[in-house]
Amino acid sequence: MKLEDLVIYKIAMEIGDEIWFSVTEWENLAKYSIGTQIIRRADSIAANISEGFGRYHYKDRKNFMFYSRGSLFETKTWLTKAKNRHIITEDFFENLIQKLDSLGVKLNNYISTLKEK
What we know:
The protein is built from four helices and no strands. It has a single domain, classed as Up-down Bundle (de novo design (two linked rop proteins)). It has helices at residues 7-23, 28-53, 58-84, 90-113. By secondary structure, the chain is mainly alpha-helical. The two termini are 16 Å apart.
């Protein structure tokens, strides 16, 4: 199996891109404060999945999936701040939260499959 075949990786990449293209349209203050944080955290979800996928030992793989899950939750926090500060719409927020929640379930399921070989 290749990294690009992992559903969790594909979804994480889509979320990162969706956030990126939204933030590029924001005004400067929002873009360089909250926007930078959201992009970094959202991109970290996919980055940690890929780094874990490339690790040899299952404990390393599992740890990077946990890091990815942590980045997912941090992304939700920054999105909530953006919504509360009227930077993003309620619809955009709800759509991304739904995708992040779905990804969280899939990520937890993937983590539970990681075993020592």
